[in-house]
């Protein structure tokens, strides 16, 4: 019984040593497995990845691009005509998925090439799911809001140079050539300084072929 007890203890010690070696080998395999997992230095969104199954990558090799989800900015290019009207802190607005977000001019680049470049930051919450290089419809307030007569942008300006427009008569049967003077503009409207008053109806489509006409007769097309 004493011999059997000593033998059993020896077997238990050997088994414990074997378990210890197995646990050590398992921990080593887990570390090797973790070494195969590529981890980014910060949280963000992967926007490009250059990797294929079975491909060998060396330490320090660039395999992709990670965009940070914080500190997003918008870079806009403006006509150099507006260079004297841009200043840091100027407010702007962008619409993403039918929701408006506020912007503020952070930096103005002094070098003027094809226009004036400015960096704008989001004020408060930024739109979700933005992508690098995505085009956004930014509206930048270059002056204080004012009350003005305006007409929608259209093809008429290409033929008239903004000097005249066809204005409809009160009954809508005719349109007369009317001298106007345009001022400021945005992507949707022209400001009318002279020639029109609120409520006037005008034709804003292309005037190709009507440049020399002073009066148009309008007819309602039969249904």
Automatic annotation (TrEMBL):
Keyword annotations from UniProtKB, A to Z: Coiled coil
PANTHER family: MULTIDRUG RESISTANCE PROTEIN MDTA (PTHR30469), SLR1207 PROTEIN (PTHR30469:SF33)
Domain of life: Bacteria
Pfam families documented for this protein: RND-MFP_C (PF25967)
Keyword Coiled coil attached: yes
Coiled coil: 12-39
Domain Multidrug resistance protein MdtA-like C-terminal permuted SH3: residue ranges: 148-206
Protein name: Efflux RND transporter periplasmic adaptor subunit
């Amino acid at each position: 019984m004493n011999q059997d007890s000593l033998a059993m203890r020896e077997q238990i010690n050997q088994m414990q040593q074997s378990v210890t070696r197995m646990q050590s080998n398992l921990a080593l395999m887990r570390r090797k497995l973790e070494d195969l997992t590529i981890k980014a230095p910060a949280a963000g969104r992967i926007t490009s990845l250059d990797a294929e199954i079975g491909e060998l990558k060396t330490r320090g090799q660039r395999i992709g691009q990670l965009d940070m989800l914080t500190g997003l900015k918008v870079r806009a290019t403006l006509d150099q005509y507006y260079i004297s009207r841009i200043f840091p802190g100027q407010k702007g607005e962008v619409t993403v998925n039918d929701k408006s977000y506020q912007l503020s001019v952070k930096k103005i680049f002094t070098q003027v090439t094809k226009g004036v470049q400015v960096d704008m930051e989001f004020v408060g919450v930024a739109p979700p799911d933005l992508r690098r290089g995505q085009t956004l419809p930014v509206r930048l307030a270059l002056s204080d809001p004012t009350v003005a007569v305006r007409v929608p942008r259209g093809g008429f300006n290409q033929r008239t140079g903004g000097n005249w427009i066809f204005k409809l008569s009160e009954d809508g049967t005719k349109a007369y050539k009317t001298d106007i003077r345009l001022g400021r503009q945005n992507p949707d409207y022209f400001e009318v300084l002279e020639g029109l008053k609120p409520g006037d109806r005008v034709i804003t489509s292309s005037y190709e072929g009507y440049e020399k006409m002073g009066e148009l007769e309008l007819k309602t097309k039969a249904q």
